[in-house]
Automatic annotation (TrEMBL):
It catalyses: ATP + protein L-histidine = ADP + protein N-phospho-L-histidine. Pfam families: HATPase_c, HisKA. The keyword Kinase applies. Keywords: ATP-binding, Kinase, Membrane, Nucleotide-binding, Phosphoprotein, Transferase, Transmembrane, Transmembrane helix, Two-component regulatory system. Its EC number is 2.7.13.3. PANTHER family: HISTIDINE KINASE 1, TWO-COMPONENT HISTIDINE KINASE. This is histidine kinase.
């Protein structure tokens, strides 16, 4: 797998993991929020809110109803009972009805209407919820014993007369109500208060008619509980106010279970996230720290010390395998190592070139100083007493001055050419030309030069024109360099053979001589710009740039140059040029 793919994979699954973590935390927060809302709603409307939740969450199919077991458990814990009545009045679902033997298995219309009107059934307070969510309507009845209601009925039976409290029992009932902080109101059919007995603080609260109903529906919103008993004969209603006993907060059992599950999942994800984060930090941090050390050493130029022995132990095991935390950056480490190696080699090469350049500059300064000293000496001689010198001596002085001047001009020309060749292709004007004719003319110039009478030049050309894409001026300079080198570094009597032709759809030029040849060291450094051969007898005879210039010209044409030579077995130079 490539490094781009590995990096994408690692960071993708890390992103997915933390995205799932954020989703889990968000879900947990939402569930906690809705649980709190639902629990508050149940608490405010208990037990009506419980009945509404049960009716909403129930499932009904083929005459069978299913309710979450947690609701059954809550009903049993609260000492309540639940019945679900079908459209035919049959009880199709019941919870905790066994302890309550008076509950029937079916209900008549009269019983259901009475329960709906009085909100009681026998000694039980009853809340009902008619649900139309399914094809047939279902009636949910939630009943529970009401000690306050039982007490109120008992007081009505013991102290009531014609729907009000008997006068002789008022003081006794007042004491009992004050002991519990309760208050009793007797209201006539026109909602007028006929009697008020007990704790008078309830009178100050001045509950309105709808407040009475609201307390019955949502008792947790008030600090008071109420129960009511209506006497059908007299039409009087007894209302008992008692202090609200705050118990433990009620919670939605299903939501609570889901919350616990999400809490555990979130905790597990957080526990997993911690070691994974540490592992990721170590995995991604260690290589970066290592790279920082490498860059620091590279900045100081310590290319050969970039990968220290300590770093190698960190990155590789004893068996040579890369450690796991560095495998993600395998290509980076390998490229870094190669770059450091190349930079180290480049630095060594730069130092070698600087040393060679210094040596070459020292040689060049010597080469320039020697002819200049000769020219200067002859100048002094001619300036002082020119009439004392004969014509022959004057001719020799002039010839020497000319030769030294030409040599210095050659050096300057080589320097200018090196500068031009550094500019690359911009100085080349490549066009189709006859290579055979150019080489033949270059050889013919040396054949016709009387100063070269001690050397023999042979030319082997092609019968047909040999067309190549080249720069004529630079190719002429190339041939001059090769032929002058063959003469300069060999004694008279040497045979120089020049040939041109085609080979593998490319043109070639060969310059072969049977002279002194070159040793291995000179051959290896032949194209080095700052190297001068060890077998050059005259120190002023050449700048050491000729073969370097020749190679640069060939490469600028997209060609190749090869040299073969052995001491006292001659030299063969072959140039390959594209056609």
């Amino acid at each position: 797998m490539k490094i781009q793919q590995r990096m994408a994979f690692h960071f993708t699954y890390q992103l997915i993991f933390y995205a799932l973590l954020m989703v889990a935390i968000t879900l947990l927060a939402c569930v906690l929020f809705f649980q709190n809302m639902t629990s508050n709603e149940i608490r405010r409307n208990f037990p009506v809110g419980v009945l509404q939740q049960i009716a909403q969450e129930a499932h009904y199919k083929d005459g069978t109803i299913q309710i979450t077991p947690e609701w059954d458990k809550l009903i049993e814990e609260k000492g309540m009972w639940l019945q679900v009545i079908s459209a035919e009045g049959e009880v199709i679902y019941a919870v905790n009805t066994t302890p309550h033997h008076t509950l029937p298995a079916s209900y008549s219309i009269a019983q259901l209407l009475d329960i709906q009107e009085t909100r009681t059934f026998g000694t039980y307070a009853v809340h009902t919820q008619l649900n139309f969510a399914f094809q047939d309507p279902l009636l949910y009845m939630l009943g529970y014993p009401s000690p306050d209601l039982d007490q109120l009925v008992a007081w009505f039976d013991a102290y009531g007369q014609h729907g009000i409290v008997r006068s002789e029992a008022v003081s006794h009932l007042d004491r009992r109500l004050l002991e519990t902080g309760s208050y009793l109101q007797v209201i006539d059919p026109e909602s007028q208060i006929v009697q008020g007995i007990g704790d008078r603080t309830y009178v100050q609260k001045a509950y309105r008619q709808l407040d009475i109903l609201a307390i019955q529906q949502s008792p947790s919103n008030y600090d008071t509980n109420i129960v009511a008993h209506r006497d059908k004969l007299s039409g009087m209603t007894w209302i008992l106010y008692t202090p609200h006993a705050a118990g433990a907060p009620l919670k939605h059992p299903v939501m609570e279970k889901a919350t616990r599950g999400l809490v555990w999942i979130t905790v597990l994800i957080l526990l997993l996230a911690l070691p994974i984060s540490i592992w990721h930090g170590y995995r991604y941090g260690q290589p970066l720290i290592l790279f920082a050390g490498w860059f620091e050493r590279m900045g100081r130029g310590q290319y050969d010390q970039v990968l220290t022995a300590k770093d190698m132990r960190k990155v590789f095991r004893r068996n040579g395998m890369m450690r796991i935390c560095y495998r993600l950056y395998k290509e980076v480490i390998q490229s870094f190592y190669q770059m450091a190696h190349q930079l180290a080699q480049t630095e060594k090469e730069r130092e070698r070139l600087e040393k060679a350049q210094a040596e070459w500059m020292s040689g060049i300064s010597h080469d320039l100083r020697t002819p200049l000293a000769t020219i200067q000496g002859y100048g002094y001689m001619l300036e002082s007493l020119p009439e004392q010198w004969s014509h022959e001596e004057m001719r020799i002085m002039g010839s020497t001055i000319r030769e030294k001047g030409e040599y210095m001009l050659e050096l300057i020309s080589d320097f200018a050419m090196i500068h031009q060749l550094k500019q690359g292709d911009s100085i080349m004007e490549l066009r189709k030309m006859d290579l055979d004719e150019l080489v033949r003319c270059s050889v013919l110039k040396y054949v016709n030069d009387v100063t070269m009478s001690g050397y023999q030049f042979l030319y082997i050309g092609d019968e047909r024109p040999l067309l190549a894409k080249a720069d004529e001026t630079w190719l002429r300079r190339l041939m001059d360099n090769l032929l002058s080198n063959a003469v300069k570094h060999n004694p008279p009597g040497v045979v120089v053979t020049v040939s041109v032709g085609m080979m593998n759809d490319k043109a070639y030029i060969r310059v072969i001589d049977n002279g002194k040849g070159m040793d291995e060291e000179t051959l290896n450094h032949l194209f080095n710009r700052y190297y001068r051969g060890t077998n050059t007898e005259e120190s002023t005879d050449g700048s050491g740039l000729g073969m370097s210039i020749a190679k640069t010209i060939v490469e600028a044409h997209g060609g190749e140059i090869h040299v073969q030579s052995k001491v006292w077995q001659g030299t063969k130079i072959e140039i390959i040029l594209p056609c």
